[in-house]
Design a protein that fits this description.
By secondary structure, the protein is α/β, with parallel strands linked by helices. It is built from 14 helices and twelve strands. Helix 1 runs antiparallel to helix 3 and helix 10 crosses helix 14.
Amino acid sequence: MANNQNSEPKSSWRPETALVHAGTNRSQWSETSEALYLTQGFVYNSAEQAEARFKQEDPGYQYTRFGNPTISMFEDRLRIFEGAEDCRATATGMAAVTAAILSFVKAGDHIVAARAMFGSCRNVIETICARFGVTSTLIDGKDLNAWKSAIQPNTKLFFFETPSNPNLELVDIQGVCKIARDNGIVSIVDNVFATPLLQRPLALGADLVVYSATKHIDGQGRCLGGAVLGSKELIEKYVQEWIRQTGPSLAPFNAWVLVKSLETMPVRIRAQCATAAKIADLLTTLPNVTRVLYPGRADHPQAALAAKQMPGGGQMIAFEVDGGKPAAFRVLNALRLILLSNNLGDAKSIVTHPATTTHFKLTTAQREELGISDGMIRLSIGLEAFEDLADDLSTALEAAKG
């Protein structure tokens, strides 16, 4: 008989314990590590059972595009940790964002979104949705009155990320989601920068929260993944059907990697946050650095809001160097330890130049509106020693002086 005593969390479990044990579904062999089910399909005992599965009258699996034991373990573990009623995993973070948005809108509907967001998210809302007759209004997400003013009779959805990519702008989750709820609008929060450890959008009133599991959840640069979490009603009625029919499904192997990654996420995130806070302070003292944006610092424009909805400053830093793009490129090219890549949330520290990578499709005017200057550098702090990161940044900034 399988030993499944840890499949449901005890109420006394702390988050760290839940991320190691919650959602475990052991096979008949009672393995210690979670099992990996690399299969496309599942065998039925009878034609009657197959019929019952497709009618969702029998709780078993049908096809890995619809569900799989390994994928379910990842969904259950993340759901329990997040405090959500339900979760659906996807192949990538953008698949999660797209599924969450398109599950709720149709031709003739309207979306309100904070303009400070990842370039691909903006493309989905402004370009892809528009192709199917869904209009949108992008606003200053910091301004609660802007959210109220942008509502139209056909507004179905609010979307925002906080902190935003790349300039770490914050949105008042509780305030915006109350406006949405009071007006019968679905609210979706992209929580990828803060992670579930530093911010709980559902507890603050959001209807859905989305993640790129590729980032901090995996945290080691190995695989792609995403997740949408929320109430059982919204997930089963809207998101599940979208994923089932369109197929942005997470691969079982990737799900297994992400399940194992959740075990170490608190240790990784806390270490990265501690180092990021010290690096942010260091950057304010280095030559050619004209601005540092870090939610954990008192000089962040929204420091009070950060303290209210985030118990830590996070792992992401944005800073600007004097001299625009040429100076920023000199800094990036002078780094020897920190890697140049457009990914983030890795055990390895990573930098990128948003104006020419993640947000290059925006016009110069749009980037200026968002505060993404040609001298801005986005820094994702990893697990290296603070002293080594400090040496690398100090040397690069000194060598890159014009």
